[in-house]
Structures are given as C-alpha cells and as structure tokens.
C-alpha cells in the first residue's frame, strides 16, 4: 500500500481535550474545565522511519502518543494510517488496527499485569487476533522471547521476578507479537538504568531493521531522541513548535524553546561546569494556555507586541520545501531579519560578547 | 509419585492451563500455603470438617433431629446416647447441631456469594467506566446502604415469606453495597496501571479487560471481605432465626438453637452456648482459610 | 577483605565526613541481602561529592545507613567520623536534621500534604535552631492544627527567609501554601529549604533532580551550587546520572552492587576512567554529538543480591575479566592522587599483553595460598550477548 512516498501515519490538526473530573452536581450544573492536552498537532511518519517527540512533562506528548494509537479518541482532527482515516474507528475495525499499531510503555512494571505469567502476557495478542493457538502459540512465544533476548524457559515466571530491562523486553515482545507496522513507544527507556537503556535502544533499532518498523519515539531525554530518531517534533503545551530532520533540529534549532532545551542538556563530555539557565519557571497550565504563542510567557527572545497576540503557524525554515518532513518552526522570529534576532537573543550572546572583547584586544 | 503430583505434572503450568477455571499454578500455591502455614492448615481443617459434617449430616447424626425423646425431658444432661445433651423437647442437640450446620453454612455462603456477585459486578463496571454510569450505580448503592440491613431483611422476608432462598437473598442483599464500594475503589487504582492500557492496545474489548486484567488484581481484598462477611452472614441468619424470621421455625439452624436455648440458660447452659461456640469456630476457620486464599493468589509474595 | 583507612597518601586535610568499611545488610526470608559491602570514602568541607550507580547498587542505602535511617538494616562500620569524631549510629541520629540533613528524590511523598510548607520548615527551625520557641508537643499541635505559626514568630520569619534563599518567588505567600499547590521544581526547592533549616554543614541529596525536567533540573542544581558557595555546605549527591555528576561534583565514587568501584576527582574520572565498569557506563550513554549507529551497551544485568559472585561483582559482565577476578577485590591507586580503583587489572603483577591480562607467576603465592580458578573455567562466566536469566 505504501509506495515509499505516502507516509504511513498522518495526523492533521489533531486535538485531544479532557474534561477535569468532577462530581455529579458539578457535571450537571456548571461548565467544566477543559485540559487542552493536545491542541492541534499535525505530523507524519514514513515507513521504517523513527519520529522522535520531545518536550517537558505535561506538554501532551504521552497523550499525543495514545491518541495516535487510538487509545484515546481524538477530540478533533484526522489521523490517517496507511491512507485510511482511523480517527473514529470502533469495534471490529479498531481491533483490526491494533494489529498494525502497537505501543510500548514507560513503566515496564506497571504495564505488565502482575498476576499473569509473562508468557501469557506475550501470547495474549496472538490469541486475541486468532494468529496462533495451542502448540503454535507456545512456539511463537518462545520465538518472540528469543527475538528480544530473553530465555524462553522463563516464560512461566511473573513480571516481578524480572529486572527492569528484562520487563521492558517483555513489553517489546508483546508489541511485536502481532507484527505491527508502527510502534508508538512512550518513554520506553526513561525508567531504566543507563547501561540497560543502551541495550533496549539497540534492541529497538535492530528490530526496526528486521521487521521494517516505524516508530513514534516519545521521550524527554534529548540525547536519546537524537540517537534514535530520523526526524524530531518538539512539543510545548500541546502544540508542535518545531519539527524537522534530526540533524536540522539539533544543529540549527530555530525555536527559542528548542534552543533552551538543547542548552539545558547536561553532557558527559565537552565543557564542564554549570548550565546557564535560560528557561525560568514552569510551563503554564494547559487548562488555560497563554494567548498568542504559548511559549511567550517564558521565552528568552520574546518580541513585545507580537508574541502575546498572534499564535505563529508552523512555517518552513529558509523557504525550504513546504512539505511536512521539512524543517518547520512556529515562531515570529521567522518573519524578522536574522541579524535583528542575533542582536537580542541570549543564545547568540557568547559569540557576540567574545567577538567584541577580542576585537578590542587585537586593536591594541 | 502421588496422584496429586501426577495430575500436577500433566497440567505442568503451561500458559493458561486451568482447573475449573482457576490457573493450576494458583492451586499449587494454595496447596503449598496450606501445607506450610499452620493457621491456614487450621482454617482449612475447620472448613472441611464442618462442611463434611453438614453435607453428610443424615448419615453421621446419631439421632433424628426432630425426634423427641420424652424420657430425656427431665434429664437433658449430656450422656453417652446424647453426647451434647438434649433440648427442651428432648431432641438430640448434636444431631440438631449437625443438621443446623447445613442451613447455617448454606445460607451464610449463599448469601455472601449472592451479595459479592452483584456487588462486584456493580463495582467493576462503575469503577471502570466512571462518568454517569458510575454516578447511577453508586448512588443506587448509597440508597441501599442508607437502610439498616436488618430492616431490609425483615421487609424482604415479610414480602416474600420465610424459606431458605428468601432468607438467603434477604441476608445477601445487605452485602451488595459493601462489595460494590470495595470493588470500585480497587478498580479505580488498578485502572491507573498501564497494563489496562496495554491490554486495550493489543485489542482486548472492555469486557475482556474488566474480567481478565482488572478483576484478578482486585481479588485479594475481596477474598478477605468475602470470608469476613460469610462469618457475619451466619450470624445474620442466626439473628433472623432468633427473631423467628429464619428459614422455618421448626428447622434446626444454629441461630434457632441458640434462641431456643436462652430460656434455659440457668438450668442447661450448653443448649445455647454450644451452638454459639460452633458459630465462633466456623467464623474463625473461614477467616483463617480466607487469609490462606489471599496469600496463595498474591503471586507477588516472595517464594521460599 | 582487609579494611584499610581511606584516602591513603592523600594531601587533603581531615574530611568533614569519613566512612570506613561500611556494610549494610537486610535480613529477608531468603537470607541476608548485603546492600552495601564494605565501602569507604571521605567528604571534605565545602565539597560536592557524588555517589553514582545504577538502581540496586546500594547508593541510597549508603546514605540511609550513615544517617541511621536504614530501617531493619544491620549497619556495621569500622568507623563513621564526623568532624573527626567517631559517631555511633545512635549519635548519628542526633545530628540528623541538624548538622547533617537529607533531601529525598520524591518531594511529593516527603512533604506532609496537610501542612503548609512554611509550617513544615518552621517546625525544623524550632527543633534545631535556638529561636527560643517552645517545641513542646502541645504547642506544636496547637501551631499545626489550630492557630498556625504566628507570622511574627522568629521560626516563621526564618522559614520565609529560607524559601527566599532557595529561589522561591513570593516567599511570604508561598509559605502559606500546601505542597499540592506547588510544581515539582518548587517542591524540591521547599525540600532544600527544609534541609537548610537546621543549619547543616552536610547535606545528603538522594536523586534530587530525577523526577524533574531538564530545564528545572538545571535550576535545582544551581541552587545546590549556591548553597555550597554561599554557606560552605558540603553536599553528597547521590544520582544515577553521570552527566549531572560531571557538571556538579568535585569528586565522585562509582558504586556497583554494593561496592565502590572507582573513586576519583570528577575530571579524572571522565577523562581517564580506569575501571571497566566506569568505562562501560560512559560508553553506553547516547550523546547529543555522537554519530554512533549502535550504543556500546553493557550486556547482562546486575548480580542477584542473593547470589552474588565471589570476588569482583562486575566480572560476569566485564569484557576484561580474567583469572584474578574471582578473588576478593582490593584497592589500587591509579593515575595521580585521589584516584582509587578496585579492579585486579590494576595489580602490579598484571601486565596487559595484546589486550589480554597476564598474571606474573609470583602473584599466586602472594594471595594467601588461595587457589586461583583455571583460566578455561571463566569461559562459563564471561558470556556476552543477551540478558539472560
């Protein structure tokens, strides 16, 4: 069906709003508060591609993942998988979709039923979709265990008897059982130790090549996202503020939020010492998001009079081709001259400052 | 190799192998718990002993529980013919106790099973779906809770009349709200766990998720509740019998025995005390057995 | 294992906190679990000392043991010295909260949800500082549940001051708020303010930024820096995050399966990691500026605490494991001062030949006549590939 040019998954202006849980009386007599968890996200994922989704906690990235996997019904917008509109599937057709789209969860212990043997957990999708039963199922479960690097003879044990990394392997085996085309991985390594993180990342990359998988890889750790993704979408308060090929995002970030995030990454190499704080405070509440650009309340490059009024659209950088995979940013600075920005931006301060001092010294 | 071992080997805990719908490895754990834990052993013994004597009362009882021996009216003391003595009508107390166990245990277990079935179903659906269904079901439960159980039982018995089934439902009706509330609370915490989401993502339907993923994880406190309430239901049946609203005035039940003996407590204390002791031991046994069940079903307990 | 005094040959002055051969074990149904197995280290005045390790490495238990907070744990140590004075675990709990205080990972579960944050800090101030306010149970109960601490009392004013110190805007108003009204980063600041209330000279921070986003993490770590710079407080920072260690700590100890594998100044550790475990950890981290197709993962998992291998606990996962690794670990000095490694590769009698460690013959007699396992037996030990149970 996909001929390489058609993306596997397309989201168009997807929104997911939640009503704040209330008592019966509130529900009957008052207007409810709405959380704008995902507020107009458009993105696409090509076959065998990994799209990284990053952002701070509460930015809506997990909700986006679950909505794309149709664990939530989108409030608005269209999600297309393999050309088919899946935004409002239900019943048998939704179950059919589950064979193509699977999820891996953040907390490998919480995502495994503690009262089921792990073999039963991995075999369940086979049973649900009538893929294999009896002997055949057992054989397939053994195969899946081998595939993710677990001893098949441990399949009678319970989740609590495994280490964190092994549990995540079980979660991956379960997702893999139906041989899906797309796996949405919600922070799959953030609960794991560093040495185990690398094992799981390597495993996911190997499986991607072996099974021609596409991934939506949701994470808050930018270095992990950089490592696994082909393209990246940066989310802030329910919106994508910058998206594009991984190298563009990491080497030529345009949005002040992306720049601040990259600035805040601690590293195990390069210069030591403190990180400069460019992002003060906390993200505002998604119940009542700021007007205009949602980032303007914390933005180190705030433009007076513009940012608070108009919500910027995602626009291609440098007039590059306007198709979805290109580097696109939602920021008013794109409408301005770049030298004007450099004069104000704290991100360019170093070069600016050093340059001035240097010139002064050499002139002497 | 014992028969049990061979059966177990045949079942060899392959994924999903079940005995009577219960996973065989859980049965294994139950056997192990009973073997290792003294309290579990005591509870199991009491439950089995009382259960058997109730089931086989017609064969085991030394006398017909209804047969009156007028000779005994003047000397109700325990003797070799009547090990526990006789009641005011000269009927053998041991036989009446054994026959009484049939009604008391059946009403007790039956009533709680009824209450648990209905209550847990309400709780599961209310907790899982939330929203208006939750409001509707739980408010209904609140209304039930607002009436004293005895009043409900009396009303029900008054409307439908005395009799085994009516008494059982009347007693069980009072437990629906407790089970519903407990089950709902458990479901609310289980629903937060990602494995319910994972189950949805592999394509399980809501009903499958409720019964396969959610219910097994709420079962531990429900078992404890079940055993505590079984004990209470036996007492409740006794209360109804004591008030003359029980199964049938002439049928021997523990509560009725206790009630009939109260007039003679100064002359023949054992007539009321012995049924009381029987109730107490049963309650204790069921509670101990319930703890064993809970431990066995908690797979997270470290194995020794 | 022979206990040794730590920091031999060190030119540093007497450490503020000195721990010698600390061992903590927990009795369980399946026998004792040794969580901390004979570790020694020292923390200088005004120093930020990092203890880095994976989950289950015993790094948190180490902190709790020092403070006498390891519930049900059996804590033994040759010595725990604070300001040069030896303290028993009981005396340790007396200085706890005052001279030594602790910051926990999860501020939500460490703060009392039904008391305002100002109240919680003021309480610590009263108990440890000399503000001359009654700390009797009745006056505490009255303050907590009836009247609240008076705004004009010294303990309250100090609480507000502390909230200001840790960078909370609007401290007068924030002091009257409950923990759930604050964001994660704010709560962690409150925890730090609370830790400061007893005027500590040492703060032990257990994963203080793990629950926070990177941008907030940077803010909190800056707060810790400022505490050190302004008040000369020493900080023991326990974390799993090597990047955090690198930007924050002066010295760092790498912990694995209850033992300290390598202790060094931070630059030294990152520039010249010597222990195979440290090297492996550093290699396994994805970095923003690397172009590796595959990460260099360390295969396998941490040893089962009930079934720890003899000798070096890392040898099952170590690429460089050789015959000596089944012997109890010993401490060796590596490059320069202040760099200690517990790895037999550092033994004088071990040469590296073609990348393979070779043991000189004279060594075996020096190991108290203990027999060394023949070389071919280790093939069963070192099994790369797959994380198998």
How would you describe this protein?
The complex is a heterotrimer of chains A (364), B (304) and C (389). Chain A is built from twelve helices and twelve strands. Chain A has helices at 24-29, 61-68, 91-98, 118-128, 134-147, 164-176, 194-211, 222-228, 246-251, 256-264, 338-344, 349-363; strands spanning 9-19, 34-45, 50-54, 76-81, 84-85, 101-104, 182-186, 214-219, 231-236, 239-245, 315-316, 328-329. In chain A, the strands form two sheets. Chain A has an eight-stranded mixed sheet with strand order 6-7-8-3-9-10-12-11, with helices on both faces. In chain A, strands 2-1-4-5 form a four-stranded antiparallel sheet. Mean pLDDT of chain A is 85; it is low at 350-364. Chain B is globular and about 75 Å long. A two-stranded antiparallel ribbon of chain B has the order 1-2. Chain B starts with a helix and ends in a 7-residue tail after the last helix. Residues 10-16 of chain B have low confidence and may be disordered. In chain C, a hairpin with a 6-residue loop joins strand 12 and strand 13. In chain C, helix 4 (117-128) packs parallel to helix 8 (184-196). Mean pLDDT of chain C is 80; it is low at 1-11 and 364-389. Chains A and C meet through helix 6, helix 7, helix 8 and helix 10 of A and helix 8, helix 9, helix 10, helix 11 and helix 12 of C.
CATH class membership of chain A: Alpha Beta
What structural class do helix, strand and pairing data of chain A support? alpha/beta
The total of helices of chain C stands at: 13
- Average pLDDT, all residues of chain A: 85
Low-confidence stretches of chain C: 1-11, 364-389
Largest sheet entry of chain A: 8 strands, mixed
What descriptors fit this protein?
heterotrimer; A: 364 residues; alpha/beta; Rossmann fold; 12 strands; disordered C terminus; B: 304 residues; mainly alpha; MetI-like fold; two-stranded antiparallel ribbon; 14 helices; globular
């Amino acid at each position: 069906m996909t001929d390489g040019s058609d993306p596997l998954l397309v989201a168009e202006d997807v929104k997911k709003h939640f009503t704040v849980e209330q008592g019966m009386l509130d529900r009957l007599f008052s207007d409810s508060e709405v959380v704008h968890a995902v507020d107009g996200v458009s993105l696409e994922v090509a076959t065998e591609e990994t799209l990284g989704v990053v952002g701070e906690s509460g930015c809506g990235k997990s909700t986006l993942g679950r909505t794309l996997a149709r664990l939530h019904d989108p409030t608005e917008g269209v999600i297309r998988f393999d050309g088919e509109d899946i935004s409002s599937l239900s019943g048998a057709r939704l179950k059919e979709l589950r064979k193509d789209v699977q999820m891996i969860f953040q907390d490998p212990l919480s995502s495994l039923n503690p009262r089921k043997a792990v073999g039963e957990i991995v075999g369940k999708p086979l049973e649900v979709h009538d893929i294999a039963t009896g002997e055949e199922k057992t054989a397939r479960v053994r195969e899946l265990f081998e595939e993710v690097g677990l001893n098949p003879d441990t399949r009678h044990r319970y989740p609590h008897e495994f280490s964190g990394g092994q549990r995540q392997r079980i979660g991956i085996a379960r997702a893999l059982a139906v041989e899906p085309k797309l796996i949405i991985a919600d922070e799959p390594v953030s609960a794991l130790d560093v040495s185990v993180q690398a094992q799981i990342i390597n495993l996911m990359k190997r499986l991607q090549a072996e099974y021609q998988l596409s991934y939506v890889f949701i994470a808050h750790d930018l270095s992990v996202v950089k490592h696994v993704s082909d393209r990246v979408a940066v989310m802030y308060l329910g919106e994508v503020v910058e998206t594009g090929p991984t190298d563009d995002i990491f080497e030529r970030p345009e949005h002040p939020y992306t720049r601040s995030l990259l600035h805040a990454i601690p590293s195990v190499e390069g210069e030591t010492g403190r990180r400069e704080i460019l992002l003060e405070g906390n993200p505002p509440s998604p119940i009542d998001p700021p007007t205009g650009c949602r980032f303007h309340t914390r933005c180190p490059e705030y433009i007076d009079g513009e940012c608070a009024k108009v919500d910027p659209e995602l626009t291609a950088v440098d007039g590059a081709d306007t198709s979805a995979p290109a580097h696109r940013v939602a920021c008013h600075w794109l409408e301005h001259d770049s030298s004007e920005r450099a004069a104000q931006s704290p991100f360019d301060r170093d070069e600016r400052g050093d340059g001035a001092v240097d010139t002064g010294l050499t002139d002497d | 190799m014992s028969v049990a071992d061979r059966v177990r080997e045949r079942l060899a805990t392959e994924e999903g192998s079940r005995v009577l719908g219960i996973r065989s490895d859980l049965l294994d754990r139950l056997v192990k718990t009973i073997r290792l834990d003294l309290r579990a052993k005591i509870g199991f013994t009491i439950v089995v002993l009382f259960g058997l004597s109730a089931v086989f009362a017609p064969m085991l009882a030394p006398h017909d529980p209804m047969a009156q021996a007028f000779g005994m009216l003047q000397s109700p003391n325990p003797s070799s013919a009547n090990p526990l003595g006789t009641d005011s009508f000269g009927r053998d107390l041991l036989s009446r106790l054994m026959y009484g166990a049939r009604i008391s245990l059946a009403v007790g277990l039956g009533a709680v099973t009824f209450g648990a079935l209905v209550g847990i179903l309400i709780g599961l659906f209310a907790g899982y779906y939330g929203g208006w269904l939750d409001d509707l079901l739980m408010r209904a439960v609140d209304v039930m809770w607002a009436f004293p159980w005895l009043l409900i039982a009396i009303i029900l018995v008054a409307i439908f009349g005395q009799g085994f089934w009516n008494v059982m439902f009347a007693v069980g009706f009072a437990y629906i709200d407790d089970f519903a509330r407990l089950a709902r609370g458990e479901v609310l915490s289980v629903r937060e766990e990602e494995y319910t989401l994972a189950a949805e993502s592999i394509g399980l339907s809501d009903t499958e998720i409720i019964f396969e993923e959610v219910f097994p994880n709420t079962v531990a406190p429900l078992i404890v509740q079940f055993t505590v309430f079984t004990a209470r239901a036996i007492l409740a049946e006794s209360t109804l019998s004591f008030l003359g609203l029980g199964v049938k005035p002439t049928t021997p039940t523990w509560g009725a025995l206790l009630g009939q003996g109260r007039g003679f407590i100064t002359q023949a204390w054992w007539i009321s005390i012995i049924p009381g002791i029987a109730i107490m031991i049963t309650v204790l046994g069921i509670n101990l057995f319930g703890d064993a069940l809970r431990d066995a079903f908690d797979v997270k307990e470290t194995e020794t | 294992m022979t206990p040794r005094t730590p920091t031999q040959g060190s030119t540093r002055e007497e450490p503020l906190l000195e721990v010698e051969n600390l061992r903590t074990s927990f009795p369980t149904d399946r026998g004792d679990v040794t969580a901390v197995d004979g570790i020694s280290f020292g923390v200088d005045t005004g120093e930020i000392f990092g203890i880095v390790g994976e989950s289950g490495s015993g790094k948190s238990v180490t902190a709790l043991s020092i403070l006498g907070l390891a519930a049900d744990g059996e804590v033994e140590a040759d010595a725990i010295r604070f300001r040069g004075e030896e303290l028993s675990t009981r005396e340790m709990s007396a200085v706890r909260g005052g001279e030594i205080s602790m910051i926990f990972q999860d501020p939500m579960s460490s703060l009392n949800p039904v008391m305002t944050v100002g109240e919680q800090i003021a309480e610590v101030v009263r108990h440890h500082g000399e503000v001359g306010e009654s700390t009797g149970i009745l006056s505490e109960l009255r303050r907590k549940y009836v009247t609240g601490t008076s705004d004009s009392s010294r303990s309250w004013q100090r609480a507000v001051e502390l909230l200001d110190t840790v960078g909370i805007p609007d401290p007068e108003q924030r002091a009257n708020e409950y923990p759930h009204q604050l964001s994660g980063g704010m709560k962690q600041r409150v925890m730090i303010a609370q830790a400061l209330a007893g005027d500590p000279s040492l703060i032990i921070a257990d994963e203080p930024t793990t629950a926070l986003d990177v941008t907030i993490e940077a803010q909190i770590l800056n707060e810790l820096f400022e505490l050190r710079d302004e008040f000369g407080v020493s900080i023991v920072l326990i974390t799993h995050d090597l990047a955090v260690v690198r930007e924050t700590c002066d010295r760092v100890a790498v912990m694995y399966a209850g033992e300290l594998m390598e202790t060094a100044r931070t630059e030294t550790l990152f520039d010249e990691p010597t222990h195979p475990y440290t090297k492996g950890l550093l290699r396994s981290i994805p970095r923003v500026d690397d172009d590796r197709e595959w990460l260099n993962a360390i295969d396998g998992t941490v040893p089962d605490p009930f079934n720890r291998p003899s000798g070096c606990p890392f040898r099952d996962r170590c690429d460089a494991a050789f015959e000596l690794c089944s012997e109890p670990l010993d401490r060796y000095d590596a490059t320069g001062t202040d760099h200690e490694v517990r790895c037999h590769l550092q033994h004088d009698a071990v040469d590296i030949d073609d990348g393979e460690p070779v043991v000189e013959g004279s060594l075996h007699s020096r190991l108290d006549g203990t027999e060394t396992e023949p070389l071919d037996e280790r093939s069963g030990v070192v099994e790369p590939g797959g994380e198998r149970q």
